[in-house]
Automatic annotation (TrEMBL):
Presence of the UniProt keyword Phosphoprotein in the record: no
Stretches assigned to the Thiolase N-terminal domain: 5-262
Domain of life assignment: Bacteria
Domain Thiolase C-terminal: from-to ranges: 270-390
Family the entry assigns: Belongs to the thiolase-like superfamily. Thiolase family.
Keywords, comma-separated and alphabetical: Acyltransferase, Transferase
Keyword Acyltransferase: yes
InterPro entries (UniProt xref): Thiolase, Thiolase-like, Thiolase_C, Thiolase_CS, Thiolase_N
Protein name: Thiolase family protein
NCBIfam families according to UniProt: AcCoA-C-Actrans
Organism: Nocardioides vastitatis
A Pfam short name: Thiolase_N
Amino acid sequence: MPGAVIVDAVRSPMGRGKAGGTLSTVHPTDLLAGVITALVERTGVDPGDVEDLMVGCVSQAGEQSSTPGRQAWLAAGFPVHVPSVTIERKCGSGQQAVEFAAQGIAAGVYDIVIAAGIESMSRVPMGSARMGADPFGPGVTARFPDLVPQGVSAELVADKWGLSRAQLDEYAARSHDRATRAAAAGAFDDEIVAVTTAEGGVIRSDETIRPGTTAERLAGLNPAFCTEDTARRFPSIEWKVTAGNSSQITDGASAMLLMSEEAAARMGLSPRARIMASSVVGDDPTLMLTGPIPATARVLARAGMSIEQIDAVEVNEAFASVPLAWHAEFPIDDDRLNPRGGAIALGHPLGASGARLMTTLINHLEQTGGRFGLQTMCEAGGMANATIIESLA
């Protein structure tokens, strides 16, 4: 089967997903259009040769309701014959877009695909697509009467793995510290493309990183998910998940150009990475956030590899308890896990995060001489994707 390679990968800066955030005046269509345009310009590919644009997006409502990839492509001024599709696998939507693109190439359906992700959480708030609706229905509620919001699931994960409040806060502070040091060293410069706001300002760096964050400062925050109802339902939990040790609500976009190895060679392009293997799993919908553990086991087995062969791992920091629980099951060297910080520091623009993490992972491997990277993300409903890439730099 044709091998799928990643020719290039870029992302926008990360902006705080609220009114006044650096990207909050940018329509999501224009935010994604700018990132895709930069990707096309960097690679020199003819946009008319792109066969499909696969875009991860979670809140498909309001300004993100009209196949945002299609609108972004048209806004960029590219040929109208190129189609787009929107992919929604919760937090893993952007990663699933990459995997579907690679699978289409491997199947011989495509030669050239752009996989991307978009989420403007300031303009389309989380949950907009199902406000006032019952997303589960009586059948699911009867089968799983203990379903809880993700924040409570994060508490259940922390409780099951015996993680303390101090461990969660220390991990969160580490995320900010690693991202701060990476930004100061220029490690993100090759992946971030500037965004022009509605007011004409140019945004070139992440707004979300908080230099100087300490575990001691984070310890002063109150638990975010302890309500009268949750305290009654789970009387044994020592509530410890806070806004400080959880991912940030964020605006952002990311895009990647994937090709068959034959197409890249024909066009004289040098791929940056190769997709080695991928997996997707379902897991306990109440614990919800534990899927990265079996997804990792499956993708390693599929690739015929061990975790010791992986040079860097990105486990999405939806909540600090997620990578910490994963790390308890896969005790790799600490400096290989989320080496440049994660969603706690950089933010989590839902549909864009999968492509953003992979963009950062590719750059980290190139800049440190690493060969293999693994990326995995927990997803609402108890699902998870995992992907192994090989750096070709």
